[in-house]
């Protein structure tokens, strides 16, 4: 049986590789820049949001807190006229990357730990490297790529954005699979 302590190095290496791949995707290649489009009347929209003084959080419009109201003419009109959307608001202030990057790295460590746990319970010492690679890469891909799908299905996230995120997930899976297969106990 493979123990979790024996997998500390591939756990950390996988987290570092995913972190570096993500950094390259977002800061060097920048292929996600086109995922975010500006509003033609951004200043007016910002002014309208500020006027309502919302606290940081997740908002939906039109808001229908009780599904029984879905049949009301006023609510139906709001849905027919649009817009329909989700809005995420953060606290005002100049964005800093430090906390987000730290959280992202910690998420990758926790994710790698979970992958290591699954691998340690399903694969023994000396498992062929290709088998370790396949299992680790598949788990990581499913987590990163699969997580974006519900946002497209339920919330209207553009499919082209989700497919790009799935491609990211494939790269993260390959990096994670490589780390675990290279350092798997013999």
Written description of the protein model:
The chain is mainly α and 186 residues long. The protein has 7 helices and 2 strands, in the order ααβαβαααα. Strands 1-2 form a two-stranded antiparallel sheet. The longest helix is centred in the middle third of the chain and has 26 residues, at 97-122. The protein starts with 7 loop residues before the first helix and ends with a helix.
Q: What structural keywords apply?
A:
mainly alpha; 186 residues; single chain; elongated
Write the layout of secondary structure elements.
Layout: H1 8-29, H2 42-52, E1 57-61, H3 73-81, E2 85-89, H4 97-122, H5 129-146, H6 149-155, H7 159-183
Antiparallel strand pairs: 1-2
Helix pairs in contact: 1-4, 1-7, 4-5, 5-7
pLDDT below 50 for ≥5 consecutive residues: which ranges?
none
Shape: elongated
In the sheet with the most strands, the strands line up as: 1-2
| Amino- and carboxy-terminal Cα gap | 11 Å
User: How many H/I helices?
Assistant: 7
Order of helix and strand elements from N to C terminus: HHEHEHHHH
Number of strands: 2
Give the percentage of residues in beta strands. Answer: 5-15%
The biggest beta sheet reads: 2 strands, antiparallel
Q: How much helicity do the residues have?
A: 55-70%
Cα radius of gyration in angstroms: 21 Å
Rounded mean pLDDT is: 95
Q: What kind of assembly state do the chains in view correspond to?
A: single chain
Structural class determined from secondary elements: mainly alpha
């Amino acid at each position: 049986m493979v123990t979790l302590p024996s997998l500390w190095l591939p756990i950390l290496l996988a987290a570092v590789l995913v972190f570096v791949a993500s950094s390259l995707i977002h800061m060097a290649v920048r292929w996600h820049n086109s995922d975010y489009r500006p509003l033609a009347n951004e200043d007016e929209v910002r002014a309208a949001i500020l006027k309502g003084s919302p606290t940081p959080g997740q908002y939906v419009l039109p808001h229908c807190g009780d599904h029984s109201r879905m049949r009301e003419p006023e609510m139906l009109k709001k849905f027919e006229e649009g817009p329909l959307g989700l809005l995420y608001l953060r606290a005002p202030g100049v964005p800093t990357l430090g906390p987000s990057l730290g959280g992202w790295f910690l998420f990758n460590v926790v994710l790698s730990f979970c992958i290591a746990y699954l691998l340690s319970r399903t694969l023994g010492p000396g498992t062929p490297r290709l088998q370790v690679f396949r299992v680790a890469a598949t788990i990581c891909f499913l987590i990163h790529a699969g997580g974006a799908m519900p946002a497209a299905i339920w919330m209207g996230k553009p499919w082209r954005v989700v497919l790009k995120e799935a491609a990211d997930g494939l790269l993260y899976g390959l990096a994670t699979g490589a780390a675990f297969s290279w350092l798997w106990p013999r």
